[in-house]
Amino acid sequence: MQLTDKMVGIIHYTLRNEGGETIDTSEGEAPLEYLHGYQNIVPGLELELAGKKVGDKLKTVIAAEQGYGEIDPNLIQELPLEMFQGVEKVEPGMEFHAETEHGLQIVEVVEVEQDTVTIDGNHPLAGLDLHFEVEVVGIREATADELEHGHVHNADEPTHH
Length: 161
Known about the structure:
Layout lengths: L6 E10 L5 E4 L6 E4 L7 H7 L7 E6 L13 E5 L14 E6 L2 E10 L3 E5 L9 E12 L2 H6 L12
Antiparallel strand pairs: 1-2, 1-3, 1-9, 4-9, 5-8, 6-7, 7-8
C-alpha cells in the first residue's frame, strides 16, 4: 500500500532546526496520524511522503516556503498597551488569541515598551528550514467521516461535529 491522497499516513518523526536541536518529535509517544492530501502537515513534507510505503524512512530538509512560510512583516505589529486590559503584566513570550482577517490566530508578545506592545503573528517556525527524519509506520484507508472533515479522528474524538 502506498501513501496517496485520501489515505491516512501514520508516521514517527523528529523535527530539528538548522543547528540540529530537536524542535518536535513523536519519539516516546504515539505516532502522528494525518490525512494525506489535505494539508494536515506542512506542504513540503506531504510531497516528500507521497508514494511512500510502510517501513520507508526519509531524512529531508524542507525549505521555509514549503514549511511554515517566510516571515511576514505585516504580522508584526505595535499595539497600545491599553489593548491588553485585564492582563496583570504583559511580558515577552506570552501568547494571545487574536481575531484577524484570516480567522483566529495565536500572536506572541515579542517586546514591551512603556505604553506599547509588539506582537508577532507569524508561526514560531516561519522563516526556518525544517530538518525532518520520518519513518512511515502505517498506512490505512481514511473513513468517510475523516474525508468529510478533512482530518484524522482520534479514538476519543466524536465523529460528528
